[in-house]
Amino acid sequence: MIKRHFAKSALMAAIVFGTVSQASAQQVASTDPAAVKAGTYKIEPYHTQVGFTLSHLGFSNFSGFFTGASGSLTIDPAHLSATNLDVTVPVQSVDTTVPKLDGELRSAQWFDADRFPSATFKSTRIVRTGANTANITGDLTLHGITRPITLKTRLVGSGTNPLDKMFTVGFEATGTIARSQFGVKQYVPLVGDTVTLTIAGAFELQQ
User: Fold this and answer.
1) Of 52, 56, 51, 65, which Cα lies nearest the Cα of 189?
2) Are strands 84-90 and 118-128 parallel, antiparallel or unpaired?
3) Any stretches that span the bilayer, and where are they (predicted)?
4) Which value, in Å, is the radius of gyration of the alpha carbons in the chain?
5) Number of domains in the chain
């Protein structure tokens, strides 16, 4: 796994320093939904992030993210309604780039990561909204509370990774939640109750 991560990092470095053109890198993936292979996929955690943004006292929109996600995606482009998505995200991974704030967010006043170490999302319904977009509705469990949310999702691309030869598919998704509905009420309404989620998801075909 470390070797694979190093190889992917090497490719990114090659792109940045010009030894691999950006156009060549983009040709690896297809944006055509028909190119997505049916099957069961596993989350590729190194390139999967859950970002969040909320108002800080009305002065700024402050952001952070979670990493280290795990889970699976079962999909058949010809029968999109049968898609099943199951994701687990470790709450301890929260990162705002401010270490003191990260520690506060893990505490009992916020996410209470010791009691509720994971957030999960399990899809219950998917509706195609365009050629490469869909709304995914599911149950989000956060801070020990489960509520339905809908994620607006777009296919980014799919294809065989030239480094590890794994067939990979990537999506981006957005949605909003009211954190107080999940029992995370610290400083509401001074610190915003509405949280915007921005998700980058990468999945590797298993079978």
Assistant:
1) 56
2) antiparallel
3) none
4) 18
5) 1
Copy the structure tokens of residue 71: 């889970």
Confirm whether 90 is domain-assigned: yes
Report how far apart, in Å, the C-alpha atoms of 40 and of each of 35, 115, 161, 170 are: 15, 31, 17, 14
Cβ neighbours of 197 (radius 10 Å): 19
Tokens 């999909």 — which residue? 75
The whole-model pTM stands at: 0.85
Strand pairing class (118-128; 49-56): unpaired
Residue 56 lies in a domain: yes
Per-residue pLDDT at 17? 46
Q: Does the residue 17 lie in any domain?
A: no
* Residue type for position 176: T
Q: Does residue 10 lie within any of the structural domains?
A: no
What residue numbers bound the domain in which 109 lies?
A: 32-205
Task: Specify the pLDDT at position 28.
Answer: 82
CATH at 113: 2.40.128.110
Are 50 and 197 within 8 A, CB to CB? yes
Provide the token pair at 124: 């219950």
